[in-house]
Amino acid sequence: MPIRQLSETMINQIAAGEVIERPASVVKELVENALDAGASRVEIVTAGGGLNLIRVTDDGSGIPEPELSLAIARHCTSKLVEDINDIRSLGFRGEALPSIGSVSRLSIRSRTASGDSAAEIGIEGGRVLPVRPAAANRGTTVEVRDLFFATPARLKFMKGERAESSATSDVVKRIAIAFPAVRFTLAGSDRSTLELPATDDTAEGSLRRVAQVMGAEFPDNSIAIDAMREGVHLTGHVSIPSFTRANALQQYAYVNGRPVRDKLIAGAIRGAFADVLPRDRHAVTVLFLSLDPAIVDVNVHPAKADVRFRDPGLVRGLIVGAIRQALADAGIRSATTGAAGMMAAFRPGAASYDHGGPANGHRSYDAAYRASGSAGFDPVRSPQRPLDMQFGAFERAGARHGGFGEPGQAAFDTGPLASADARAGQSEAAETLLGTVLGAARAQVHENYIVAQTRDSLVIVDQHAAHERLVYEALKNALHSRPVPSQMLLLPEIIDLPEEDAERLAMHSETLARFGLGIERFGPGAVAVRETPSMLGETNVQQLVLDLADEIADNDTVETLKERLDKIAATMACHGSVRSGRLLKAEEMNALLRQMEATPGSGTCNHGRPTYIELKLADIERLFGRR
User: Among 238, 260, 366, 474, which residue's beta carbon has the most beta carbons within 10 A?
Assistant: First the structure.
């Protein structure tokens, strides 16, 4: 087949295949155009998941009538002058409108602030319609109908209407977070209306917009980030370790105001939370990176979803370091969702007390029931007696024993007690302890949970999980404060690698030596391992080196080795901490609480579970109808 020049329509349809993946891609391109035009209000309407209709209306600067025909021509843009390395707008290629018009029925109606009237132009499957007068307010309205009607094969790859509508909502929310001063409305017959009122460009306004998108509970469970390194500025908010999600969909990242899904940023977030979250949980984050456009390439992906940094190690180090420092500075905090769950459990009707059998969750009742059997159960000896006896029995017992004094309470002291196993609050706690974050220990229940009191809350601490975190942090500090002890191999292990991987490992040999791994070049395509960290014991050296080589190639870091050492420290901490079932004295419980307050990250254990839950006094009063 001879080489020939493709038609303009075919070229546009090929470009549409790269840029216009689904209806959400169209919405993204059109909303970005509106924001680049200086809009303060953007309204989006969809139908049929966006396949039948997409309409985006803004109050931006508008397009002059003579430029409408240029707006739908390929590689025509007002956003790029000469330097491709100085991109300060969301769009810059000039491909979106002609690409959309080649696979749909597109119309653009626009009016400038100085224009006496509006003008409209249309494209149907790549065929350009003439410009004609129209009626419109200042700004631009772009309407896309019958998306992919010109390329019906693409319709087979579309998901259901609900899935396409959800993807469009996600795109609008991601963009809206970066532009808090702009009002966004997303409506249509295929969805419930989403309204995001404008706030302002201040830090408080930005956080209010984040709350609109991610829920009001996020600001209460987040930590502010503000750090700078070598001209790269990082701001935003990250969730505290006890506030997590089952997936990473709630992680929003922006580079110079552009929403991105970059694996380097995602990996940095995962690395920053590696110590405090389990592998199946993900932090909630909103991070903004601001840097010179010349040191970041936004032209590496057709949809501009990925970026490439000139110094990826700098960016990754900034994100990891800033998040870890913020978590350390924030001290100990518990998620408000934990208190909400406790409130729900305490509400009347949350648990069933059907006394036809053992009460669910009450150990003493359960034990007594099993010991006596359902037929021979003696309610007088049951610690649940106040729940089981009728009012008349109470009255007779009071008459016999002179009220509910000590003799009258004797029956309730028999059998195993479901109350405090240790009583720390026999005397009033010092005022200074009540003013601390975790308060003063009052009791230990079920030989594992410390109940503490502050001036305005009740705190329940899991003693094993809390002490596990304390021991782990102490082991880590001891491990990384000096070079890790190494063990010399009797015979060096030679590992064959691609030459570029061997070169990367050699460049990081000094850092690896600090972690106890002695590596040196052994010819052009191999390395010799002479020492390994003593903590690892007998390990698969070859697999370790291969994993390190892969990580250095991806992120230019050697976190793999550090993570393995930390994992061993976590295992040692788990076995060396206070076990469940151990009775603690009041002094020991208070000492544990004070250590938790002084240790960064002690709000969760090594496995990511919360170490304590706080219930505010106001919430307790609501449970009892006092508020």
Answer: 238
* 508 Cα distance to chain centroid: 31
Q: What is the spatial distance between Cα 97 and Cα 74, in angstroms, rounded to a whole number?
A: 8
Residue 114 CA to chain centroid, in angstroms? 45
Distances (CA, A) of 430 to 246, 591, 617: 41, 14, 19
**Vertex 320 angle, CA 532 and 84, to 5°:** 115
Return the beta strands (E) in 478-611 as ranges.
Answer: 486-496, 518-521, 526-533
Reported in sequence order, the residue ranges of 77-182 that DSSP labels E, i.e. its strands, are 105-111, 118-124, 127-128, 132-134, 139-145
Across the chain, mean pLDDT equals 80
Query: pLDDT tens digits, residue range 86-105?
Result: 677 787 666 788 888 888 99
Contact residues for 192 (Cβ-Cβ < 8 A; gap 6+): none
What is the sign, positive or negative, of the torsion defined by CA atoms of 277, 279, 284, 288? positive
CA dihedral 17, 22, 25, 26 (to 10 degrees): 90
pLDDT higher than threshold 70 for residue 247:
yes
Strands 139-145 and 132-134: unpaired
Do 139 and 86 form a contact (C-beta atoms < 8 A)? no
Residue 239 has pLDDT above 70, yes or no: yes
Tell me which DSSP letter residue 231 carries: T
d(CA 298, CA 255): 9
In single-letter form, the type of residue at position 77 comes to T
Least reliable range by pLDDT among 22-26, 90-94, 576-580? 576-580
Listing DSSP states for 261-296 in one string gives: --HHHHHHHHHHTTTTS-TT-EE-EEEEEE--GGGE
> Rounded to 5 degrees, what angle do the CA atoms 329, 332, 335 make?
115
